[in-house]
Amino acid sequence: MVIYGPDMYLKPFAHNKKCILSKTKSKNYQHILSLVFAVNEINKNLKTLLNVSLGFHIYDSYLNARMIHQNTLKLLSSQKTIVPNFKCFKQKNMIAVIGGLSFEISFYMTTLLGIYKIPQIAYCVNAPEMDDKSQLPPFYRMVPNEEYQYAGIVKLLLHFQWTWVGILTMENDNGEKFLQTLIPMLLKHGICTALNEKIPATTHAVETLSSFDSILDKASYLSNSEVNVLIVNAETGVMTYLTWVMLIYAMLKDIKVTSISKVWITTAQWDFSADVMHRAFDIQVFHGSLSLAIHSNEDLGFRKFLQVLHAKMTKDNDFLRIFWQQAFNCSFPDSKEEEMRSVTCTGEEKLNSLPGTLFEISMTGQSYSIYNAVHAIAHSLQKMYSTRQKHRAMLDRSRLDLPEVQPWQLHSLLRSTSFNNGAGDTVSLNENGELAAGFDIINWVTFPNQSFSRVKVGEMDPYTTQGQTFTINEGAILPTAKCNDNCLPGYSRKKKEGKPFCCYDCVPCPDGKISDQKDMDNCFQCPKDQFPNRNRDQCLPKRPNFLSFTEALGICSVFFSLSSSFITALVLGIFIKHKNTPIVKANNRELTYCQLVSLLLCFLCALLFIGRPNAVTCYLRQISFAIIFSVAVSTILAKTITVVVAFMATKPGSRMRKWVGKGLANIVLLGCSFIQTNICAVWLSTTPPFPDLDMDSIAEEIIVECNEGSITMFYCVLGYLGFLASISFTVAFLARKLPDSFNEAKFITFSMLVFCSVWLSFVPAYLSTKGKYTVAVEIFSILASSAGLLGCIFAPKCYIIILRPSLNSREHCSELTMRKRSYGGSSMKMENNLLTS
User: Fold this and answer.
1) CATH 3.40.50.2300 holds for 147-267
2) Among 407, 634, 768, 833, which is 20 to 30 Å from 539 by CA?
């Protein structure tokens, strides 16, 4: 096959067009169609080659050395006469050659093309051999190195523990090379060869068999029951010969062909070659065969291209007409063949209706190599034009035409070519000019209707980035005799009642357990720091669960904590600035400062609950919260008692006058805080909090938390805090109606109502949540209760200080107090007591 440019056309060169396909297997016509598809794809894609299109000529080698040389000389001559080194002025410029299917064809071609430095991209699995490789002209193969194929066969045998095998190969140089390479590798790995059978090296090898006796003698490997695995160097001649031998052997033994039970392991050259005899031959004899194959991928565009192809589309295409007649076993009415078939071709038959032995819709490995070869040439040309365009950017673009490109210029570009093809694969050549890839492992599944399926079950890829060059999926290999399918990972076996032990049901693993292998009798528990995945076939590491500074909940908590702290500091600044005003002096302004500082610390202590817990934060969290909140509530209680004592001291003959002042408030504040401090000291000295990991509460996460050490001490702290809040609320509620403009008992009542409501709801919420949400509940309770105290007590005072300064005067407050006649003159005295306390 030859790539020409710049025009695209298809033209057979043989004078007798009929014979072009008469000796060619109809299935190999896909090679031609993959070439046509690739050229069309490139010519339609304007981004690949601007203003340049590719064309091609097609030659048939007939597997004949003389014909190969003759056709190669035609490439180097004008189109009608074989005159080497002479080219017509209007002759199309040949850029590269693609071919051939066997290594002999490639060798014959490269010896002539190498003289003119014309690049050849072959798709033969075996490279041409020469004693001196330095004499071999530049040669490229769109297939991997065959050494990987030998390694793949050995690894496949070792995987299934097959150590007693036979080898079938052709009686030629390629067969000798196959034996000399493979047998030492087998012996090195402890694999013995039970037999080594050589097959005559000819496509029509059956003609070399003179009698049925010689066939039985040659077919001894078919009757050898000790050898169940046969490795076949599966060239076309080998498989044709093998097929004939099995047919004759079955006929002589009066058995069915399918009764020949062998495991066939074939090389990448093998394909169901689709001789006409395959219409009658039962291909199920090859069911379950394993083969190394050139990697191919599904190109949806190629499938669509074949589905719409029919013979009426191109009436002048003799290739397609001849293929159509052979594939569908029919004849066109105007056919010039000597033997007309009984069935008439309509030209509208569908290729996807043909069995796979005659034609495949999915792209085969050889066709995929041709497809990649065309794209490699196109990408090399694209690089050449891009380079020229940069150096000659100021010249007219029309001067960059194809005749300026010489074939030898492509060599350096082909060596470094790397691109992504239309099927999504990355294609590149290594330093030896071979495809940098490995081989697929194919399991051949055949069906009674002569169709088959290629099932990829593994690969031998030395270029893999995952470090495992050989992989195989036994589950994808269809079993031939089993009571039931294997139990996949994630399931366990359960014996069927009344059935043999090899028959079982597959039941899913229960929650919390997995099975990571096929056919496991029991599922097992994951380690504590791991959890089962959804399929219950693997244990995954649990994620740490704690309230982080980087997540939304943590960010919101930090924002509210800092913003509330800033507001508290702002209120403290306002009160310090207006410290000599009546509203600040009332109810002991030192207590007010202490209360604001404690509220500021309450807001900030919420930050200790955010982030990954450690020993320090676990010590400080609850202790800081308990002591700071005790101080805040104690200041409220002290201020409330101050209001009550100040009112009682106004009564005639009252002995409470001696308690009016700062002494009582300080005693209440220090005494109440001291009790909470002692509780916390006992807690720290006996069972202090510590960092802990809870692996059981949440299935997929590890809760990183602070263990309270003693839950009893934790609730003692909360209980004492609730006790202080209850007393403050009760006293403030009783003193809420005392007549005085400075009396904040009413505001304290509301603030303590909010405080108690928040912490009463905290307990059930704390007990019903897990992980970081438990911490979030406590942070919310701290911020909400602190905000309730700040808002209810200080918001009205800030309103008067900032917006109504006229109300913040002794005269105005005295005037309001005088109007409360129900209490006589005690309110004025109470006011004086509050201002002096």
Assistant:
1) yes
2) 768
pTM strictly above 0.70: no
Q: What is the pLDDT of residue 417?
A: 87
- Confidence check: pLDDT of 567 > 80: yes
Greatest mean pLDDT among 51-65, 312-326, 440-454, 709-723? 709-723
Strands (DSSP E) along 695-817, which ranges?
701-707
- Structural domain boundaries in the chain: 2-144+317-428, 147-267, 552-836
Buried b (16+ CB within 10 A) or exposed e, 373-412: bbbbbbbbbbbbbeeeeeeeeeeeeeebebeebebeebbe
Separation of alpha carbons 66 and 165, rounded Å: 39
Could you give the angle at the alpha carbon of 3 between the alpha carbons of 373 and 439, nearest 5°?
A: 15
* Mean pLDDT (whole number) for 194-200: 81
Q: Are 2-144+317-428 and 147-267 in the same CATH fold?
A: yes
pLDDT (tens digit, 9 = 90+) per residue, 366-393?
889 999 999 999 888 888 887 777 666 5
Q: Which residues contact 175 (CB under 8 A, 6 or more apart)?
A: 169, 198, 201, 233
Q: Could you give the dihedral angle defined by the CA atoms of residues 698, 701, 706 and 708, in that order, rounded to the nearest 10 degrees?
A: 20
CA 256 – CA 294 distance, rounded (Å) = 32
Sorting pLDDT into bands at 50, 70 and 90, what band is 640? confident
**Residues forming beta bridges with residue 492, ordered by sequence position:** 507
| Average pLDDT of span 620-630 | 89
DSSP string of 694-716, one letter each residue: E-SSSTTEEEEEEE-S-HHHHHH
The DSSP string of 101-152 is SSHHHHHHHHHHHGGGT--EEE--SSPP--SSGGGSPP-EESS--THHHHHH
Stretch (H or E) spanning 585: helix 582-585
- The CATH number of the domain covering residues in 552-836: 1.20.1070
Instruction: With cut-offs at 50, 70 and 90, classify the pLDDT of residue 508.
Output: very high
> Each residue of 664-673: pLDDT tens digit?
778 888 888 8
- Per-residue pLDDT for 332 more than 70? yes
- Angle, CA of 77, 78 and 83, to the nearest 5°: 45
3-state secondary structure of 540: strand
CATH-assigned architecture of domain 2-144+317-428 = 3-Layer(aba) Sandwich (3.40)
SS3 content of the chain, % helix, strand, coil (to 5): 50, 15, 35
Of the candidates 475, 481, 532, 485, which has an alpha carbon nearest to the alpha carbon of residue 506?
A: 485
Distance, in Å, from the CA atom of 352 to the CA atom of 118, rounded to the nearest integer, reads 38
Strands 491-495 and 701-707: unpaired
* CA torsion, ordered 324, 330, 336, 338, to nearest 10 deg: 130
How far, CA to CA in Å, does 776 sit from each of 329, 563, 624, 770? 79, 17, 17, 10
Of 429, 431, 445, 525, the residue nearest 479 (C-alpha) = 445
- Residue reference for tokens 């995952």: 466
pLDDT digits (tens, 9 = 90+) for 24-77: 466 778 888 888 899 888 888 867 776 777 888 887 777 677 888 888 887 777
Residue 416, φ and ψ in degrees, nearest 5: -105, 15
Are 361 and 390 spatial neighbours (Cβ–Cβ below 8 Å)? no
